[in-house]
Amino acid sequence: MKGGKMPVNKKRRIIGIDPGLANTGFGVVDYVNGKIKLVSYGVIETLAEDSHEVRLLSLYNRLTAVLEEFKPDEAEMETLYFSRNASSALAVAEAKGVITLCLAQKALPLYMYTPNKIKSSVTGSVSADKETVERYVQILLNLKTKPEPDHAADALAGAITHIHSKF
């Protein structure tokens, strides 16, 4: 491996994760022969009427199942963005802790990127809005339609960013 880059012909499977307590997006892509190919994407939802600890356990169990199904080599997760709503920031932080535990139990290396790094990597602009990021993800993955919901599109954008940054 020259300069820390992986040989182009070796397949790597990356899972991008957009963390949240209510909705955690995931996007799985393969990088092989210099091309990015979509494997799968979706959202893990937890029920608002469930207790907090049950929601975290549900996220853990369902993400564990996703990791076992797709067997990624590496993981990407956006760095925590603190908004003005402290209670939602704390819930996201707890979800990130559960996600990090899942990844550690599978011995998956975790890479984290800022929202601006992801926007810039995918669209070329740090000021891109969600719609623009979704459109670029669609183009980069050669999809007929934009990936939905937006949590899944964000996860795919993170996985693409990791490939652009590492390979």
What's the main sheet like? 5 strands, mixed
Given as residue ranges, the uncertain stretches (5+ residues, pLDDT < 50) are: none
End-to-end separation: 10 Å
Rg calculated over all Cα atoms: 15 Å
Q: In total, how many beta strands? A: 5
Query: Number of helical segments?
Result: 5
> Helix-strand pattern, N to C?
EEEHEHEHHH
- Helix proportion of residues, in percent? 40-55%
- Estimate what percentage of residues fall within beta strands: 15-25%
Strand order of the largest sheet: 3-2-1-4-5
Mean pLDDT: 92
Dominant shape: globular
**Secondary-structure class:** alpha/beta
Written description of the protein model:
There is one protein chain. By secondary structure, this protein is of the alpha/beta class. Helices cover 46% and strands 22% of the residues. The protein has 5 helices and 5 strands, in the order βββαβαβααα. A 5-stranded mixed β-sheet has the order 3-2-1-4-5. Strand 1 and strand 2 form a beta hairpin. Helix 1 packs parallel to helix 2 and helix 4 packs across helix 5. It is globular, with a radius of gyration of 15 Å. The termini are close together. The mean pLDDT is 92.
